[in-house]
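Intended use. Records like the one below are meant for learning the mapping from a protein sequence to its folded structure. Do not use them to infer anything beyond what is encoded.
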Amino acid sequence: MQRNRKNRLRATGGALILGLLSPLLGHAQDALVPSNNLSPEVALQIAQTSLAACRAEGYQVAVAVVDRMGVPQVMLRDRFAGPHTPDTAQRKAWTAVSFRADTLALASNTEAGSGQSGARAITNALMIGGGVPVEVAGATIAAVGISGAPTGEADDRCARAGIEAVRARLELDG
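Structure written out for the chain above:
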C-alpha cells in the first residue's frame, strides 16, 4: 500500500514538473530562428558567373557576395578593375541585403527631395545600381554587388546573371 502511494506521488510529481516545464520547452523553440545561407561554393559560383558576364560585355569589375547579415563571403576583382571597385561592390551588396532591395530601385527611391533621401546618409549605404539581393522563398539570404561597369544598369545585369546561374540550385535547396 505504501509502495503504491509512493509511486502515485512520484507520478504526480513528475506530471507536475512536466506541466511546469512544458511552456518553457515551447519557448525554447521560439527562441531560435532557422535561416538559410549560401554555401561558399554557391557564393563563389555567383561571383565567378557575374564576373564572366561583365567580361563578356567588355567590363573589368569587382564582385562582392555578402551573406544575409552583410558579411562578405566572396570578393573577386578583375585584373584591370579600378582600385575603388572592391569597396564599392561590397557596399552595394551590403546596401541590397540591408534594405532587401536592389540598389537601382534604391537609387531612384532615395533621390534628393524624396521622403527616403535620408537613407543615403546611413554609413556604408551606397545607392548606386549594381547591388542585387539573393532571395529564396521570399527571404533575402545574400546579395551581390558589382562595381566597374560604365553604368549601374550594366553592373545590375551582371549581378543578376550570377544569381540566375544558381537559381535552380537555390529553389531546389531552399
